[in-house]
Amino acid sequence: xxxxxxxxxxxxxxxxxxxxxxxxxxxxxxxxxxxxxxxxxxxxxxxxxxxxxxxxxxxxxxxxxxxxxxxxxxxxxxxxxxxxxxxxxxxxxxxxxxxxxxxxxxxxxxxxxxxxxxxxxxxxxxxxxxxxxxxxxxxxxxxxxxxxxxxxxxxxxxxxxxxxxxxxxxxxxxxxxxxxxxxxxxxxxxxxxxxxxxxxxxxxxxxxxxxxxxxxxxxxxxxxxxxxxxxxxxxxxxxxxxxxxxxxxxxxxxxxxxxxxxxxxxxxxxxxxxxxxxxxxxxxxxxxxxxxxxxxxxxxxxxxxxxxxxxxxxxxxxxxxxxxxxxxxxxxxxxxxxxxxxxxxxxxxxxxxxxxxx
Length: 358
Known about the structure:
three-stranded antiparallel sheet, alpha/beta, 2 domains, Aspartate Aminotransferase, domain 1, 12 helices, seven-stranded mixed sheet
């Protein structure tokens, strides 16, 4: 029989995004649901962003700027790098796929903390490479073990700080020591900083600031969280110009649509809204942490816009009870943490509704 499908994809489990909110609400017999399961912006994008999308909608019959030039220039100015050091993607997922297409070959190894963001292992598997999984030390990335996973066959190391789904950070000095320990010919090091905008710990590293001294470092960030553009799918990577050139070789010519580019540019320009979102999430994260602790719940200290809360054997029952109360939270078992629920930080109203339901 003719073989059609690649062997590498047979063990890949498709990502389950869940049913749309309106469908779930109808199935539950509720008028609406509060989704605290997807780490989305608690109130939505800036009014300035919405106006930009409306204006740009008149031009959706035209292809977008294939290089996202205006957006890259604005990002470069914000970050203090050259625009040639930035590549835009249809979310961080596409950026990971570009990396796999450009760099990973069958037999290559990629060191990844485990558990962590599922697409890390997915792109490795699809490329036919081998994921070397490094168990977390409790809720923290074990950099010593990550270093032990690196061999002569290692093509890349993937780190996330804050970690998804634990919310913990890789601290600055241990990260610098880890990067030095990789030696004079290090593999690629991907530092996923999707949630960095919500960090208020002064020991949290800034990946972009490390690029000048670590030429194989690739820093990934996104507009999905801080800017409320999860539905527009705009992520970006910052690295040396040589790395970005290689990634551009496998990038589709119009991979970020017109509305996404316009929305992201407007979000960058609205610095006040950006900062107000950061303040809201940090304030509500502290409130939710305090109130959950007062009720006897435990969780690792989070620097993201979510908490990974331990409920033990009652986790499934709690999740179901919250659903009946109109609140969606994420099953920790599906993320590698049985007995836990990942709960996004919402508005004060949403957080109080969650606490009341608990």
